[in-house]
Each structure stands twice: as structure tokens, then as C-alpha cells.
């Protein structure tokens, strides 16, 4: 089976995110009433796996390899079977 | 005594590091990052630059380069390892030093001279300096804000692992702006617990001749040379 994986890598709560702050300022300048803007990363990829559980396990290992646990958290946002 | 200067794709201070090491009489050689062995080297320098284009995060991809296993081995055996700027970022990403280097608070790539205070002189990198000496060195980075959680910071302070701290210019009135990037505890450079792995954001290799604007970085290379002379080969 072939799966499409989506991982999110975000800064931990409480860690100053100057990018988020800059984006927030611009959005507010445009008239949006937003707060708490944070900027993260989305990683997408395709993998071969026996089933969804295996694809999810691969996604977990990739997240562990790529996210820096000192200041980031990662989430496996989606595991979708490709047909 | 041979010192390896590791070249990652995107390193750009490798030649400067080589120059500075050779200036004090050390045998230094460039080593490409795919190299699987650092046999015969007694020290390694991870130079500044933009390894892997800073993609993903500064230093995040370089930690997977084959040579990093060997850098880790040198470090574990107690040999000196120095990471300058991007090299510091690589060392934190690789877990050889605690903490992380985040985007400067002001979001600018900051390229200027800063002052830093030498907090320790009992290290293979600082023995040529005086305790409390204030150095003038250039910085050039966008991700230099040292961050670690409270517990780690406390441990760093207790173990005296903070080697260089951003400081006001000597004889200046002083102000809150001597810290160029928002680093916690004004941290500009730290060592591991063993004291043989140093990471620092400022560039000592860019301050080794008067023609470069200063020589305050030379002490680091003289210190390294003195330390290597008494190490077993």
C-alpha cells in the first residue's frame, strides 16, 4: 500500500516565536482580530507500508528524527491511503 | 597534532578557520562531511556557514552527515571539538551540547561586532585569556538566540558551562542592548560537562589579524594549540 503522510512541526507552547509575532502584527494591520499566531512547518511525503498502522509508525519515527525536542513538538496530522 | 575542519555543503567559514588554526602553527586540514573516519585527528572544528542551506532548521540536516559519528567519537574520547556559529547550531542539533539556537528576537540577520566576557579560563579554548576579559568579536547570524529550559540553564550555570557571555562594551555607559539576539542569560558560548566541546556564536576566526579589524579571537587558537600539545596523540 502507498500512503500519504502529513507531519506538523511546531514550536512548543511558551517559546517566543518572533515569526508568529511578525505575522500577527501584519494580520492585525489588515484588520483581522487574531491573537496567538504561531508559525510552524508542514512536511508531506509518500511511503510504502503494509497497512495504516505501519505507515503511522514510520511517520512517528520521521517526526522523531526531524523535530528538535528542545523547542519543538511534532504531530502526525494525517495518514491517507493512496488509491 | 592534526585538526579537522569539517566542510558541510554550505559551510563558508571553513577557509577562515583553517587560516586561523594554521596561523598559530597547528596542522589543520579540510574534511568533507561524507568522510567516515577522523582517524589521526585530535580535534575538530565545525565552521560557520549555512550547512544544507539552513533547510528545515539551522544545523538540523548536518547532524545526519556521516562525519558527525566521528565528531561524536572524538568528543566522547575527550578531544577538543569547536563549533562556531552554524557549527554551534550543528552541535546542539546533534545533542553534543544542550539547548538550541532560535531565531534572533528581532528577526534580523545581524552582522556586527559584539563584546563578550570570558567566564572561564580553565578550558582548552580559553587558557590564553584572562578571567573576565572582554573580547570584541564579530557575529553574523539570524538564529543565535540561545534557548534551554529553566532546569538546563540552572545546570549550565552550576557547572560553569557558560564560557562566553555577551557584555557591554568596556568603559561604555552600558545599556540593555549588549545582547544582540535575545539569548537567555546573555549566553554567547557554552561547553559540555566535560569541558572539551565548545559552541559559540561569535566568530573568533574572523578576528585573528589586525587587518581583519582585531585579534581578540587569536587567544582561542593559541589556547587550543597549548591544549593539543599535552594531549596524547
Mind explaining what this structure looks like?
The complex is a heterodimer of chains A (83) and B (233). Chain A is an alpha+beta fold and 83 residues long. Chain A has one domain: Mth169, Chain: A (2-Layer Sandwich). In chain A, 33% of the residues lie in helices and 35% in strands. Chain A has a three-stranded antiparallel β-sheet, covered by helices on one side. By secondary structure, chain B is α/β, with parallel strands linked by helices. In chain B, 21% of the residues lie in helices and 24% in strands. Chain B contains five helices and eleven strands. Chain B has helices at 14-23, 67-76, 86-93, 150-158, 218-229; strands spanning 2-7, 27-32, 43-46, 81-84, 100-102, 110-118, 134-141, 145-147, 162-166, 187-191, 197-200. In chain B, the strands form two sheets. Chain B has a nine-stranded mixed β-sheet with strand order 2-1-3-4-11-10-9-6-7, with helices on both faces. Chain B is globular and about 50 Å long. The model of chain B has no long low-confidence stretch (mean pLDDT 96). The chains are: A alpha+beta (83), B alpha/beta (233). At the A-B interface, helix 1 of A face loops of B.
Question: What secondary-structure arrangement, pairings included, does this model have?
Answer:
The complex is a heterodimer of chains A (83) and B (233).
Chain A: E1 2-11, H1 18-29, E2 41-48, H2 52-66, E3 72-82
Antiparallel strand pairs in A: 1-2, 1-3
Chain B: E1 2-7, H1 14-23, E2 27-32, E3 43-46, H2 67-76, E4 81-84, H3 86-93, E5 100-102, E6 110-118, E7 134-141, E8 145-147, H4 150-158, E9 162-166, E10 187-191, E11 197-200, H5 218-229
